[in-house]
Amino acid sequence: MNYFIEVIIPLSLPKTFTYRVSETEYNFIKKGMRIAVPFGKNKIYTALVVDLHQNAPTLYEAKEIHQILDEKPIVNEFQINLWFWIASYYMCNVGDVYRGALPSALLLESETIISQRKETFVNETELSDDEFLVYEALQHQSSLKVQNIIDILNKKTILPVIQRLINKNIISLEEEIQEEYKPKLTRYIRLHENYSAEENLITLLDSLKSDKRKNLVLQYFQLQAQEQKPISVKQLTETAQTSTAIVKVLVEKGVFEEYYIQEDRVNFDKNKLDNQLSLSEAQQKAFTEIENIFIEKDVCLLHGVTSSGKTEIYTKLIENCIAEGKQVLYLLPEIALTTQLVGRLTQHFGNKVAVFHSKYSNNERVEVWNQVLNTSEKAQVVIGARSALFLPFSNLGLIIVDEEHEPTFKQQDPAPRYHARDSAIVLANAHQSKVLLGSATPSIETYYNATSGKFGLVSLKERFGKVQMPEIELVDLKDSYFRKKMKGHFSLTLIEQIIEAFTNNEQVILFQNRRGFSPVLECMTCGHVPQCPQCDVSLTYHKYKNQLRCHYCGYNMAKPSNCHVCSSVDLETKGFGTEQIELELAELFPNKNIKRMDQDTTRGKYSFEKIIDGFKNREIDVLVGTQMLAKGLDFDNVSLVGIMNADNMLYHPDFRAFERSYQMMTQVSGRSGRSEKRGKVIIQTYNPLHNVIQQVTNNDYEGMYKEQLYERKIYYYPPFYRLIKLTLKHRDFDKLKEGSMWLYQVLQQNLSIPVLGPEEPAISRIRNEYIRTIMIKIPSEVPLQSTKKTIQKVLNSFDVVPQYRTIKVTVNVDFY
Ligand code: ADP
Ligand code: ZN
Ligand code: ZN
After folding, report:
1. 274 lines ligand 1 (CB under 6 A)
2. Quick one: which residues bind Zn(2+) 2 (predicted)?
3. How big is the CA angle at 386 (ends 383 and 390), to the nearest 5 degrees?
């Protein structure tokens, strides 16, 4: 008898592969187990079993496997089905999905690089012989490839050895970020217990001679009464407007006691109060509506304005779901947001909350994977960014997609270019689970689905605690520049408001969307702007490093002192990014603590959290940032949000530009005034009458939606048309031009729907590769599956034209 297994190899290959196994192996192996298999020349890959059968392959001789890596499946059928769905819907290879879905520690292969974790203490006597040999080799070499280990151990079955060393924390795999975050300790103050009784207090006040000291003690009492939570030294000195020296004196005199708390513990205490609070009337109503909708529909949109307390509603739903013993997946656009959320959810659900974080080490990710796999209580609620969708859930009851409108839910590169929200709906369907999409500014597609009855719709129009929506004021930049009412990029109106916020001890957020508008160096004599030698973009000027950098390929050079074209020394910086705003602000307010939050300042594992912590603790006065600021952060002391320039978002060459501008401005504005006092927003713009700016100002989502929907209809865009974007790349300009024309024409002949292009995109060369794009628009009434089949056929025939073989083509379905 012949026995075979069908496996997925973690490479971009369109098929599954057949390997030969013995009868014993056949009886042991189950779908979802990993098997090390030889593939190509001398390479080993971690393949995944998707089927067992007795049919020999017809086109090739089936090879034998190396070894079985698992004792039981680590992937279940829900996952395998989802992978195949994604591969088919997003027109990629199932190997791409497999590769993207598994934490890389579970995907060892010959080229994987292994190094020692220096911080782990190793007891050599507890290592097996094989483990010891690997460990010893790492004492002489800083890293090893899997292939080296095969040589060292002189056998093929080495993956289990590596896996065990990983489990013991002795080794780690490449591309791990190792950064320790020491939780910030905040200095707090409390009255010595001797003074807790009222009569003692009066004696105390009498005994204090200096007014300043008396005032401080009184302020302490007032704060204590207001806040009913620990009072930090910083908060006290700020409110009392005194220096820490006086606090010190009072500590020395034994009036106050100092103590330190970790910031997350403080939230814990505060949330303890929240925990007893119940939903507001409006929240309760929304919650009941969602529950009723879930009786009939599987997907519901919660359209709740910023700060309406959507998280509290999610929490209630999660509560019910875990009470039924089911798993919950909570998807966030950016994992950076988790700090705040994890605090809030752990408060309710204790250690049932796990976080799946792309910035976590491999080992940590494997740990969560295993917890979910074993339906451990520790991971009954999983919070994660889009890739958390791929965890081995077996019993999902609810998926929450928070901030569902965020484009980061769509993976761009590499394949699979899937949309996590849309894929979540497919996954939920398999589990017969419910999906709640939440947003203050839903995507046009989702709102269309919700108003056309495909999804349920629940609106929550008031902020929690009856806080008012922020007041939005427009500043006309044209007028302000003309009347010289500007300092750098700051209008006098904005400066006045910032001063007012400072006077009230309140914090400020300034938003500068850097995309498409970065500072460049321009020659004032000949107008030359230095370009990246490998990409079709201007280099961006970074003042701190005194460098010019390319944001696409990382190319950089020291800032030149004269123009490379005309040698003039008259060079000026044009345009502005967050960095320049930060610098201008520092000049305007030299005594204030200003921090910047953008891609450059948030690279490390906890760098984002550090900034957020600092801002939350009120150590930072102004936060300057990019769209990262627009993602659901909750601060209670921000009374002013400034949008530095609304126009550069509006004029992005993209059919979603107006929708995105509305979303971004509304979301950033929503960070203002989240407690009792009404917040203020200043939008600086050259187009105060622009419809989108007006819609933001009037909080008119419906107006924006109707207008955009109309545009989408007449210009053939989603939700009326599905977009498939093909991107072609090659170093040879002429070959690319010819090839893309060929592809365009053949598509055109084979499809009776709009095919547009081939177009040279705004940035038409990156890393020395030229780029062309072709856009296919599929009307919603045209069958999708057969259209994709035709497209795939054309792509396959393109692939076999000898002169075009080297042109790379990527397919982006539901292009975002
Ligand atoms: P959203 O996500 O809708 O912008 P949040 O869920 O962040 O709003 O809520 C805004 C603020 O209101 C948070 O600080 C939250 O703790 C508070 N809040 C919302 N609902 C409640 C509630 N039912 N009880 C106590 N506090 C609440
Ligand atoms: Zn010049
Ligand atoms: Zn470049």
Report:
1. yes
2. 532, 535, 550, 553
3. 85
